[in-house]
């Protein structure tokens, strides 16, 4: 951490899976895209919803303590969070996934990271090219439900992968006005970026997602896409989120029930992070 209180994260030690052999990555990608991905989306969602319900069962609350001990050095980690929905206890493992900060991070930066996880993809919008999805060529704008050229070419694209251990609520990266909300139905292929080594954002092009645009006080649009994956029971928008509504920096936008990624196209480049580093909610963008 520097003298201004800004933390510089070089890596997350739990993402050593990036070192998996190529043959295993190829196998996982085949199972995700060619096998699971070939199933009708309705069947994917039905199976995912059933799987997600397992984590709502009271018996799964016993997983939380050993899970926290394994992933976090701080034995009092959970003391930083409230259970969801006004509960006094974490009654299931799903409650752990959608835990709420007791106190949001505070800093003077006007732009912050909206979520916690691995910054698995990063680049200028004009330089990222196209992605082939089910025989169609799609541009970065496709993720956000837009056409090629709708996002200024000098914008910066980021994709943060939220591991199961990460905090699963998405917050506003800036203060501004919500100018668009769009739901895009889609697949629920595996999100883990290390199995798509050449294109870690592939799932964001084809998976179910909510797109939220926030326009800042200078008239610049910050495009966000909240992307679901297998076992995601649902993506839920915060009750106060509506088109035309105002948001303050770090207001909650959405939460995931289980896994997710969060993409953003922004008029600013990240100042303190590079690809494959770890970001946290509220850290200066």
Structure characteristics:
single chain, 285 residues, eight-stranded antiparallel beta sheet, 6 helices, disordered N terminus
What are the secondary-structure elements, in order, as H or E? HHHEHEEEEHEEEHEEEEEEE
Helix tally equals: 6
Quaternary = single chain
Q: Number of domains in the coordinates?
A: 1
Structural class designation:
alpha+beta
Weakly predicted, low-confidence segments: 1-11
Shape: globular
Strand order of the largest sheet: 12-8-9-10-14-6-3-15
**How many beta-strand segments?**
15
Helix content: 10-25%
Largest sheet: 8 strands, antiparallel
Task: Describe the overall structure.
The protein is α+β, with helices and mostly antiparallel strands and 285 residues long. The chain has one domain (13-279). It is built from 6 helices and 15 strands. An 8-stranded antiparallel β-sheet has the order 12-8-9-10-14-6-3-15, with no helix packed on it. The longest helix is centred in the first third of the chain and has 14 residues, at 22-35. The chain is globular and about 50 Å long. The relative contact order is 0.21. Residues 1-11 have low confidence and may be disordered.
Task: Give a brief rundown of this model.
This protein has one domain.
List the helices and strands and how they pair.
Layout: H1 22-35, H2 41-54, H3 64-71, E1 81-82, H4 93-97, E2 100-101, E3 117-124, E4 130-133, E5 136-139, H5 140-143, E6 156-162, E7 169-171, E8 176-184, H6 202-206, E9 209-215, E10 221-228, E11 235-237, E12 246-247, E13 252-256, E14 260-266, E15 277-279
Antiparallel strand pairs: 1-2, 3-6, 3-15, 4-5, 6-14, 7-13, 8-9, 8-12, 9-10, 10-14, 11-13
């Amino acid at each position: 951490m520097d003298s201004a209180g800004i933390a510089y994260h070089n890596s997350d030690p739990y993402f050593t899976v990036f070192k998996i052999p190529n043959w295993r990555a190829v196998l996982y990608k085949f199972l995700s895209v060619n096998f699971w991905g070939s199933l009708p989306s309705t069947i994917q969602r039905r199976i995912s919803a059933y799987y997600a319900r397992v984590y709502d069962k009271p018996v799964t609350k016993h997983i939380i303590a050993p899970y926290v001990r394994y992933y976090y050095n701080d034995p009092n980690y959970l003391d930083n969070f409230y259970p969801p929905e006004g509960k006094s206890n974490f009654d299931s493992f799903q409650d752990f996934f959608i835990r709420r900060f007791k106190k949001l991070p505070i800093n003077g930066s006007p732009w912050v990271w909206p979520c916690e996880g691995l910054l698995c993809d990063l680049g200028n919008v004009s330089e990222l090219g196209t992605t082939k999805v089910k025989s169609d060529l799609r541009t970065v704008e496709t993720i956000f439900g837009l056409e090629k050229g709708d996002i200024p070419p000098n914008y910066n694209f980021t994709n943060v992968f939220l591991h199961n251990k990460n905090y699963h609520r998405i917050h506003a990266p800036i203060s501004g006005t919500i100018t668009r909300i769009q739901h895009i139905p889609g697949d629920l292929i595996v999100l883990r970026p290390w199995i798509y080594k050449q294109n870690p954002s592939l799932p964001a092009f084809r998976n179910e997602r909510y797109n939220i645009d926030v326009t800042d006080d200078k008239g610049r649009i910050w495009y966000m896409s909240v992307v679901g994956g297998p076992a995601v029971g649902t993506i839920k928008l915060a009750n106060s989120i509506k088109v035309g509504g105002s948001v303050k920096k770090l207001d909650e936008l959405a939460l995931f029930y289980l896994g997710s990624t969060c993409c953003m196209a922004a008029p600013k480049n990240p100042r303190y992070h590079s690809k494959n580093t770890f970001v946290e909610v509220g850290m200066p963008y």
